[in-house]
Amino acid sequence: MSVFSVTLPSGVEWTPNFVQSIDDEKCIGCGRCFKTCGRDVLSLMAMDDEGELIAIDDGDDDEYEKKVMTVAHPENCVGCEACARNCSKKCISHAPAKA
Q1: What's the pTM value of the predicted model, to 2 decimals?
Q2: Average model confidence (pLDDT) for the chain?
Q3: Any bridge partners for residue 3, and if so which?
Q4: Quick one: which of 38, 98, 31 has its CA closest to 70?
Q5: What is the predicted pLDDT for the residue at 51?
Q6: Of 5, 10, 70, 72, which has the highest C-beta tally within 10 A?
Q7: What is the predicted pLDDT for the residue at 28?
C-alpha cells in the first residue's frame, strides 16, 4: 500500500503526516496545540481518577484535577503537524495516510 504525497509548486514532494493520537500521560492540557490548529481537530477533555474522559462543561473548567487534549475530529486534519511543533511535552503523534 502506498503513502499519500503531493508535489509542491517548487517541485519538492511532501508527505503530510496526519494526527493519530495524543499521549494522555504526557499531556498537561495547556491548549497550545488547540490554539495552533484552526481546523477543529482537537478538543479539551477532563480525566477522572479511573482515566475516563469527561466532557468539560462551560464554566466548570476549574473543578477538574487533570485536563488533556484529545483528537476529536481527525478527519479535519490537513497534516501540517503545527500542533506537534507547538507541544512542549511532545505528546502528539502523526503518521502518513495510506493512499
Answers
A1: 0.83
A2: 90
A3: 98
A4: 31
A5: 83
A6: 70
A7: 95
* Per-residue b or e along 50-66, where b marks 16 or more CB atoms closer than 10 Å to that residue's CB: eeeeeebeeeeeeebee
Q: What's the rounded mean pLDDT across residues 6-27? A: 95
Longest dimension (CA), the chain: 51
Query: To which residue does cell 491548549 refer?
Result: 31
Question: For strand 53-55 and strand 92-96, is the pairing parallel, antiparallel, or unpaired?
Answer: unpaired
